[in-house]
User: What shape does this take?
Amino acid sequence: MATIMTVRLARPADGPALKAHLTRVTEFSIREPDESPDWLESPEADLERLLGDGDRIHLLLANDEIVGSIGLSRGRRYRVRSLATLGIGIEQGFKGRGWGGCLMDLAEAQARADGMHKIELFVRPDNDHALALYRRHGYHEEGRLVGSQQIDGRPVDDIVMGKRLRALPPPVWSDPALSDRKEDGQEASAVVRRPTPDDAASFLEFRRALCRETRGPMLDPRDTLPDEGEMRDQLARPENPGRLSLAAFCGDKMVAAIGAEAGPYRRLAHAASMGMGVLRPWWGSGVADRLMDGVVDWGQRTGKRRLALGVFAHNERGRAFYRRHGFVEEATSGAHALIDGRPADLVRMAKPLGSSFE
Assistant: This one.
């Protein structure tokens, strides 16, 4: 009996079959063979939520069984709402038949129809077939994340690639505050500690103030923030070695914050992604240094090998701060975000912790 091949968009009811398919596609995955996608813990309900948020997944079916998929994950923040991150997987026995190219074409057409301005993806340098496929479809390398994965005790890099889908105005920025490196902040009298549920209102006000001050953060004034009850719940999460949150307070006022979280799978658990923000009156006060020292100390104590972050290219002050703390620039993702309709490049930086992989 001939195999009937079809391609269609995923529906919520596909959740369990999609999860089973993805657990079979792990050769070049960020997951070990015995790990399931963390974003499909409740497959049908989670897939319904993701599709409702604007994600798109095309399925390749052989006699109604999923044997391939390609997904576009849409940015959740306002400034990256028209950025899509692509992931593709095809099972053994169906590779080398042209289905990868077919899925790539469908995903790009879908991204254009949904108004995306760019697609980005990550690929291992030893995945020759995928690299060739992406290059044929017009993707360009933006840099290499050194040791972003750890497989069988050895570091493995990721290549960042991107493709712009429409013309954008030039990224001309003029924000003197972000290029001013003068050490003119207030005295470093702030207290650095872990925030508690009682700090929920202060944390929300800090985030609102931060995005009003400059065009430096990823957070935009139009982003939806959690309410105070939701923030209390977030701050009440139990401590664990894979996550850290620190903040600086002057009295009851939060003036700076930093957070770091390790990857959800074993191949990513050695690395933590981090982000920080400091209110402008406390720039140059030494508060940011104290927060960074706290994250580095946590990373070393919990066996992390890598700290990684993203900073907008026009944030010269932030980039200089991270370089001073040992971060190196690994990749520049052009037009990663749109701020007031203008493209903003994202510089991906990382700091190694420890001298080698064990």
